[in-house]
Write a structure and sequence with these properties.
mainly beta; four-stranded antiparallel beta sheet
Length: 203
Amino acid sequence: LQFFEGGIGDARLLAPNRLLVSLYHPDTFWTMDFNGNILSGPLAGTNGGEGVVQMSDGRVVATSYPQSLLLFDKNLNRQPQNDRNDIVGIGLNLPHGIAWDSDANRFLVSHDNILTVGLAGVSALATTLTSASPVIDLNAFPFTRQTIYLPQEDLVGILRPVPGNQRAILLFNLDGTLNSQISLSPASLGQNLGVPNGLAYLP
């Protein structure tokens, strides 16, 4: 029961055969296999929420409210000396999701901006965590969250969980244009699976 308290924030593949799951409350990480069996957890004190990603070198980065990136080594040990807190700074206000762009060796962070409430866009964040540049403008796509990157297709995926008849995975080109979308509406799926809370890419 503890595993489901507060809801699932995000789920990411820990290669080759595990999932890393973050929870909202209590703020913890868990690992599980593809049959739903808990392998380890909880890892307390993460303060992680909507975004978790594993880098090419095995390290893990999690977003934390309101504007922090938390670093972990490949064994999920905290590395607080490498955290980044950008309350003012590079403008990634209230991150909602994070993905690793393995082609360009950078993070892709979905976030609000300092002037609006709600997802404003996706920005590319350097591995030094010192500079960011806009990639996708999401102001025309309200109620979106989460971020994935599909390296073979050079596409960025964003989850639109509501409203029910518009539930979808939105796929964007790296020039910011909408490429396509995968409908998750009850009509398209033939059943109502409820509001989607997480999005993960399994290569």
